[in-house]
Amino acid sequence: MGLPMDPASDVRLGCPTVVVAGTNGKGSTCAMLASMAQQAGYRVAVYSSPHLLTFEERLTIDGEPVDAEHWLTAFDQVAAAQAAVQLDQGLTFFEVVTLAAIALVHQHSLDLAIFEIGLGGRLDAVNVLANDASVLTSVDLDHQAYLGDNREAIGFEKAHVARPGQPFVVADPMPPSTVLEVARDRGADVWCFGQDFNYQGDRQQWSWVGRGQRRNAMAYPALRGANQLLNASAALSVLSALRHRLPVSQQAVRQGLSMVSLPGRFQVLPGQPAVVLDVAHNPHAAAVLATNLDQMGFFPQTITVLGLLSDKDAKGLLAKLIGRVDHWCLTDLDPVETAGRARSAESVAQVLRELQSELPDGGRAGMGPAPISLHPNPEEAIAHAGSLADPSDRIVVFGSFHTVANGWPAAHRLGQAPHAPSAH
After folding, report:
1. Torsions phi, psi of 95, nearest 5?
2. Cys-Cys with 169: which of 43, 191, 215, 326 at CB 3.0–4.6 Å?
C-alpha cells in the first residue's frame, strides 16, 4: 500500500463525514443512513465497494452514480498528484479509486459524505479521511490472510477507524475486546449496542432508543433480512450523534427506511420460481442468509447457484446452508474479472462432497446428499437451476459479487419466462 497512514494528516472533506467498517452489513448501513438523510433534504455522497454491475456505482451523489467522464477527470488528478510526490511504493487500484472519489466529493457542495471501508480499517485507503462519526457493523472471519485468523486480530484492524472525541458506533452485539481497547486508546466516544443504543420490535413495527433520544412506531426497513434492524439501529445512532449538525425528522427516518434499496443483498425478485440474489461470501453472511431463507416460509425445493473466490472459507460457508439445499449448481467465475482469484466449481464440489460425507444423510435428514452439478459460468448455472425448478420452488444465487453480477440477466429472466413444470 502506497498511502501513508498518519492520523495527524487526516484528509478533511467539506462536510460531515461518516466512515463505515465491518465484515458484513456495511453496504446496508450506508444505504439506510444515506436514504434517511436524503429524505431530510440533505445532499449525500456514498462511496462503496466493490461495485455490483457498473464501476460508476462506487460513488453516488443523491442516489445517482457519478458518470464515467467525471471519474476519468478525477483519475487524471490523482495521477498528476502522484507524479508530484514521492511515495515509497506505488498506489494500489483501490487507493487510486478512493483518492479519485475523495476528489470528486470535494467538487460537490454536500451535507454528508459516507465512505465504506474496503478491507479492514487500519491500513485501508478510506482511513486517510478524518471522520465525524464511524461505525463498526460486525466482526467475523474474512480476509484472514490480510487481517488475521481470529476475531480479536480482525477487530483490532477494523477499530482503527475510530477517531479521538468522535462517535464510534459498535453494532456487533459481542465485539472482540480489541475493538473496545483500540477505540478507547484512540480517545473515541464509543457507542455500544445493548448499552448506548438498542432496538425492539413486533410484527408490525419497531423502535430504537439511544442516548437521550428515542424513535418509535417505525415500519421495517425495505431491505429484507434478519440483521437489518441492527444495521438500521447503527445508522440511527449516527444520526443521533450528528443531530445538532444534521437534524433528521421522524418522517424522514420513516420514509428513508421504507424507500431504501440495495441490489444483491437478500434481494427477492418478483415472479416464479422465487429467485434470491445475495452477495454473501463468508460463513457469517451465509448464516444470516440461512436465517433469512428460513423466514421466507416453505418452498418444496431450494436450488442454489454458488460461485466463490479462492480466499473464502468454502467449508464454513457451505456448512451454514447444507441442510437447506436440494440441489447445488456450482459455477466457475471469470478468471480475468476476478483477477485470478476465482475458485473452480470442481474445487468447491470437492469440499462439498467431503462435508456431505461427514454428516448423516449428507446433511439432509432422511433425504441423502443433495445432487451437485458443475457449470462454466453463472448464466448457465442459473439456466440449469431454472430447468430444475417448479414455479413453487426457490433459487438462491450467492457466493460473491461476481456470481450475482454475472448471473443478473439470467436471474431476472427466470421469473418472466413462461414456465413448464420440471420433472423431479
Report:
1. -65, -40
2. 191
pTM of the prediction? 0.91
Cβ-count burial of 182 within 10 angstroms (0-12 exposed, 13-18 middle, 19+ buried)?
A: buried
pLDDT of residue 226: 79
Query: Rounded to whole angstroms, how far apart are CA atoms 271 and 419?
Result: 10
Q: Do residues 129 and 117 make contact, with C-beta atoms less than 8 angstroms apart?
A: no
Domains of the chain: 7-259 (3.40.1190.10), 267-414 (3.90.190.20)
Distance CA(417)–CA(424), nearest Å, equals 20
**Residue for grid cell 453480477:** 405
321: which residues sit within 8 A by CB, 6+ positions away? 286, 289, 290, 293, 304
Q: How far apart are CA 414 and CA 411, in angstroms?
A: 5
33 burial (CB, 10 Å; 0-12 / 13-18 / 19+) is buried
No. of H helices and E strands in the chain?
13, 17
Torsion of CA 382, 383, 385, 390, to 10 degrees: 130
